[in-house]
Amino acid sequence: MRHLTSHLRRVYRQRRKDLEPSQQQQAAEHLLLQCQQQPEFIQANNIALYLANDGEIDLAPLIDYCWQHNKQVYLPVLHPFSHGHLLFVHYHRQTLMLPNRFGILEPKLRCLGICPIAELDIIFAPLVAFDPQGNRVGMGGGFYDRTLAPITRDKLHTSVIGAAHDCQLVEAGLTGEQWDIPLQKILTPKHVFYCAD
User: Fold this and answer.
1) pLDDT digits (tens, 9 = 90+) for 8-27
2) Positive or negative CA dihedral for 70, 188, 101, 105?
3) Which of 65, 56, 85, 54 is nearest to 187 (CA)?
4) Helix or strand or coil: residue 159?
5) 53: pLDDT strictly greater than 80
6) Which helix (H) or strand (E) holds 102?
7) pTM to 2 decimals?
8) Is 197 in a helix, a strand, or coil?
9) CA dist., res. 119 & res. 48, Å (int)
10) Which residue in 50, 52, 62, 84 has a CA-CA distance of 20 to 30 Å to 102?
11) CATH number, residue 6
12) What is the DSSP pairing of strand 105-107 with strand 97-99?
């Protein structure tokens, strides 16, 4: 099973990396349109997003939209003390960005800028591949699964939404693990997949 997941991860990471810049830009714009039609997004005030990396669908238009409509944006930052976990830190146009150990830019960690998960209305989670039932394959580090475990454990009202390119859909069902974070839905430029509870 682990070998199969590793193979899937390689194949679908390459699929999204193979997209032309114009395809990436168009996908990002269409994803914003999808978000604008989601009731939880319309009502949300505190939203965790991410900066695209490794061919991930670009959320920059979504971030700009949030800024323009007074929605607070938070980005994931590697937890400095709790290995394998993330913190969500406030992000605005003047935020000082620093590369983390993976070379990914993240906001400089400030205690006052951290938003507890329970206070986030939506967390947009990146993924490598997904199936129509909402099962996902991530990058393999488990950062989101560990960080967002309290949502299920403590029955928080935070929505977790997957964001992906349409080419990341796996028609055959993926096998979810018991520690996988539950997604309410997955948004792509062309589709909305509602996930089973």
Assistant:
1) 888 898 899 999 999 999 99
2) negative
3) 56
4) strand
5) yes
6) none
7) 0.91
8) coil
9) 10
10) 62
11) 3.40.50.10420
12) antiparallel
Q: Which of 105, 87, 88, 107 is nearest to 96 (CA)?
A: 107
Could you give phi then psi for residue 75, rounded to 5 degrees? -120, 150
Tokens of residue 23, six digits: 């395809």
As given in the structure block, the two tokens for residue 155 are: 């029955």
Identity of the residue numbered 126: P
Token pair in block for residue 127: 């993924």
Per the structure, the count of domains in the chain is: 1
Q: Two tokens at 41? A: 């997004």
Residue matched to tokens 């590369």? 99
Q: List, in sequence order, the alpha helices (H) in 59-186.
A: 60-68, 143-147, 149-153
Residues in the chain: 197
What are the angstrom distances between the C-alpha of 156 and each of 13, 79, 92, 126, 150?
31, 21, 26, 20, 7
Domain that holds residue 55: 2-194
DSSP conformation class of 96: -
What is the enclosing helix (H) or strand (E) of 24? helix 21-35
Contacts of 116 (CB under 8 A, 6+ apart): none
